[in-house]
């Protein structure tokens, strides 16, 4: 059974379109997972910060302390989210490239 170049190209196009679909689905799931993780992380941080606020309440006014902590937390969460997104994107692209290259090598050896 010999494959023509046209058949190989058609198979590569099909694989590419399936990979794009899977990549889109993975992005959606990843964003939903990150959203849930972000909410859980915020709840944990809120609990920890309330304890810290109670300890520090005697030293500074609550409003100043809360405002500073909220600003820092927002910034840290944004950086963490960006870091997770960049890592996930890098991993997805590496996996896609590995899949494409393995299919290419497989076709070339046949």
TrEMBL record:
<comment type="similarity">
    <text>Belongs to the SIKE family.</text>
</comment>
<dbReference type="Pfam" id="PF05769">
    <property type="entry name" value="SIKE"/>
</dbReference>
<dbReference type="InterPro" id="IPR008555">
    <property type="entry name" value="SIKE"/>
</dbReference>
<protein>
    <recommendedName>
        <fullName>FGFR1 oncogene partner 2 homolog</fullName>
    </recommendedName>
</protein>
<keyword id="KW-0175">Coiled coil</keyword>
<feature type="coiled-coil region">
    <location>
        <begin position="69"/>
        <end position="103"/>
    </location>
</feature>
């Amino acid at each position: 059974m010999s494959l023509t170049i046209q058949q190989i190209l058609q198979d590569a196009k099909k694989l590419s379109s399936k990979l794009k679909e899977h990549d889109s689905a993975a992005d959606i799931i990843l964003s939903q997972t990150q959203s849930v993780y972000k909410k859980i992380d915020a709840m944990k941080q809120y609990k920890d910060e309330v304890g810290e606020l109670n300890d520090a309440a005697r030293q500074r006014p609550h409003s100043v302390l809360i405002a500073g902590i909220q600003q820092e937390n927002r910034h840290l969460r944004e950086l963490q989210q960006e870091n997770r997104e960049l890592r996930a994107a890098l991993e997805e692209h590496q996996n896609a490239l590995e899949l494409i290259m393995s299919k290419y090598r497989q076709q070339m050896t046949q």
